[in-house]
Every structure is written in structure tokens, then in C-alpha cells.
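User: My collaborator sent over this chain with a note saying "see what the structure looks like." That's all I know about it. Can you take a look?
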Amino acid sequence: MSGSDKRKQSLYFPEDMLKEIQAEAARQDRSLSWIVQKAWKIARSEIKKYPSINDLPDG
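Assistant: Without extra context I'll predict from the sequence alone. Here is the result:
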């Protein structure tokens, strides 16, 4: 996806997690969006290792 694509999307976080993200954004003087985007870029290779729901055995 291009870095210039700026579509709005609502995301919902547990309150405690949101507070942590807000604190980190304030610490770094960055937006919440920036923090979440960077976190995704760092974590996505690990997340891709998780099986999809379609890959799980029945039962």
C-alpha cells in the first residue's frame, strides 16, 4: 500500500492499551496513528506466522 493513501478507519482498543499508546505518542511527540503504523510495521512479520482461522484443524 502506498504511503500516500490516507483512508480513515476506526479502530477500537481496550482502554488500558489505548492509554499506553497515548502515553507513548506523547513521549515521542507523535500521533496515535504514527505509533500504531510503526507498531504494525515492526510486528507484522511475527503476526504473519500465526495460522489463519482456515488453517486450524477442525475440533
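A starting point for your reply to your collaborator: The chain has two helices and no strands.
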